Structure prediction request, 143 residues.
Amino acid sequence: MPVENDLLVGDAARADVLERSLWAVAEVDRDITPIFFDRLFAHYPEQRRSLHYADSTCGAMVNEMIETLMGLATGEDWLERWTQNPGMAHRCYGDIGLPLYADSIDMLINTLARVAGHGWSKAFDAAWLEHGAALKGILARVY
Ligand code: HEM
Prediction:
């Protein structure tokens, strides 16, 4: 029982750190989607032509990446099954290898940090990187 309580408190605290970091990003009032995708395309220019409906899909993708990482912090049990979806749904989008998924997670975290600027903290970085590593682990298992 105490262990369970500790875990629950820990999860809530971690989710709280992530949420506060998103407020730091929101305060800057900039759309992170084009910043993330500019970075992605700078490293993987060949992916640019895969996005046929960028106006509607890019924002949805960034949102879903953030929601997934937040879901890991709150211990959502649907995540392991859910993370099979990007792989399945994305197969028809072309050759998206595991390293590209991993890099995209790092680029997303880096985008949040850069946009938040002085509002970002080491605690924010540590929390996102921890969950980023967890998501990479899940994707590697289901890929
Ligand atoms: C955890 C990682 C990812 C998540 C959660 C995610 C999520 C999404 C979502 C929600 C969409 C919107 C349409 C749909 O449901 O299929 C989408 C579209 C798409 N994603 Fe991802 N994605 C991820 C990683 C990636 C990576 C690394 C690439 C490689 C560049 C990629 C390429 C695409 C493409 C090409 C589309 C279709 C865009 C279009 O047709 O305009 N995704 N993704």
The chain has one domain: 2-142.
